[in-house]
């Protein structure tokens, strides 16, 4: 059973001030994460949407509720801005392709950089690294009467027991970790969540244990814990020993 070589718990005090930490970079061997405020006014300002391509604008128009459309636009604007900074090119010129499972990637395959985007409510999370494929997840914990039923159905017995003891906090710790791992693999929640054990105790250092025969990668780095504004976050990289995780602050528009 492959086990994560590097794993860390996140202390919310580790999130840096975005202005103080400077522009993003693509340092080799490091995992970079940025929080995004999806309720930024750019979501309602057509002049801010010029970096989005026609497919992104069309997708935004398909949302039923204007707030969801605005948050989608902000998420994809920030993704383009951040990647543009890393790649040293205008945000509008960042080109994407879609993989077999719907996972987006840079069209420029010569720039060995993996990225991933997640959102929950008014919060987004963007992660990227040159070390290996990246998957991220952010969740706004919410009380629900069926979380234990979901845990029994989709978590392994050990994780379900931890959720029974730890409640909602344990459920979302486990959920974000699993989703980050599966997204790094280019899979989604259609995969069997029991193929990978990640633990559900928010206070313990997370681990990745892959079930024999699951066909998932053997080398992992997993970083998880508390994010800004009460969110729960996780980030996984298919690579050993990605020990340095740069937990950034909230990225607002840095357009000239």
Describe the model.
With 256 residues, the chain is an alpha+beta fold. It has one domain (6-251): 4'-phosphopantetheinyl transferase domain (Ribosomal Protein L22, Chain A), CATH 3.90.470.20. 27% of the residues lie in helices and 25% in strands. It is built from five helices and twelve strands. The strands form four sheets. It has a four-stranded mixed sheet, covered by helices on one side. Strands 5-6-2-12 form a four-stranded mixed sheet. The radius of gyration is 18 Å and the shape is globular.
Give a brief outline of the structure.
The protein is of the alpha+beta class and 256 residues long. The mean pLDDT is 84.
Break the fold down into its secondary structure elements and pairings.
Elements: E1 6-10, H1 18-21, E2 30-37, H2 54-61, H3 66-87, E3 96-98, E4 104-106, E5 114-120, E6 123-129, E7 134-139, H4 147-154, H5 157-184, E8 196-197, E9 209-210, E10 221-226, E11 232-237, E12 244-251
Parallel strand pairs: 1-10, 2-12
Antiparallel strand pairs: 2-6, 3-4, 5-6, 7-11, 8-9, 10-11
> Do you know the CATH architecture?
Alpha-Beta Complex
Number of helices: 5
Give the CATH class.
Answer: Alpha Beta
Question: Quick one: how many beta strands?
Answer: 12
Largest sheet properties: 4 strands, mixed
Order of strands in the sheet with most strands: 1-10-11-7
Order of helices and strands: EHEHHEEEEEHHEEEEE
- Give the percentage of residues in beta strands: 15-25%
* Percent in helix: 25-40%
Integer-rounded radius of gyration = 18 Å
Structural class: alpha+beta
The CATH topology label is Ribosomal Protein L22, Chain A
